[in-house]
Specification:
It is built from 16 helices and twelve strands. By secondary structure, the protein is α+β, with helices and mostly antiparallel strands. It has three domains: 121 residues, PAS domain (Beta-Lactamase); 102 residues, Orthogonal Bundle (Arc Repressor Mutant, subunit A); 125 residues, Tetratricopeptide repeat domain (Serine Threonine Protein Phosphatase 5, Tetratricopeptide repeat), CATH 1.25.40. β10 and β11 form a beta hairpin. α14 packs antiparallel against α15. The protein is flat, with a radius of gyration of 24 Å.
Amino acid sequence: MSPQASDLIEFASDAGFAIDANSRIVAWNKLAERLLGYTSSEAIGQYCRDILQAALPGGEPLCYPGCDISQCFKKCQPYGVPSCRVQHKNGAWIEASIATIAVPEHARRLDSTHVLAVIFIRDSSTLNARPDQQTLQIFSLGSFGLVVAGRSVAIDKWKRKQALTLLKYLLTQLDRPVHRERLIDSLWPGIDQQQGWGRLKVAMYCLRSELRANGIKEDVIKTSDKAYILRRDAVWVDTFAFERLITEGGELQRQGQWNDALCHYNDARLLYRGDYLEEEVFSDWCAEERERFREIYLELLGRTAECHAELGQYAEAVHICRKALVFDPCRESFHCLLMENLVNSGYPGVALAQFRHCQQILDQEFGSEPLAKTRRLYQEILNGEIATGSVNEALTDTAS
């Protein structure tokens, strides 16, 4: 690391660290150790998002793969976060602010670690975010949230809740025109069209006013004849990042790059904070998309468990399988994978008990028996025919 960057970290008055182009920590000062609890040896080499686990006041994640901050660094732009929470090693949350220095490209070439940025953390400080960071970020997996320029948008204070519902609906149809009649029928079913048109105009006016008040240009929602379009190129959406990470991880997995695939999958798991638009429990217009993302998340967990198993990390694979079964207790493929990994972890007795648990759940929920494949696996474990390290089976079975 260059002497100049080292001095900025070592002699700074705030907790500070430096990251490289892959967002891995390459320097960590004593004040950072004091603030967050991690020693230098524990922090260096880790992704900064895994150490900070930072979130905005509204609960939206600040640190995630390809986040706004990292994109600014790559453009050699600093990024200020006036208010956020970072997590101490012991799990406690710390109210903080973040200031940064983006290292110019010519300076990065001066040392072997190629420092991309220097980041400072201070307890409860106020720093102004850059006015040109005005991309609207939409978090829809879990609690719905909007972020602009590193700040949570206080959607709970919006005067008209239908304006927020309207934005959510347009999000489900991102970049596709939604005719006003369809919006009226979905948001106010059974209402007279003229009255519905009046309500829609008020909701749209309120939505655009709220976005404008937070520095978002009005053309983020485009009007086309009698339809509205939420522009894909004007927003960042967590679901797109989520699916992209899984796609890229799948390609790495097919190439046998298990560690790299696992990194992508773990990053995707960070973005899945809960069901898609989870507050809209009774809204039919997002139910199909919610179920689609639940299936994608379960597939993600399956792939994650497979990668752990290929790396011989059977305890981690067991943990992921149990997590998946909490999410969907009737998913028989995960019962199978859990049984195999329990055997590979040295717990065949627990694997047999897992089969009986699977048998009980399927009987209670569907009045059915486990599939032939599951019963065959049980017999092989019972007869001692499963050798340690034999987890190679893909999750190809459908759920019961």
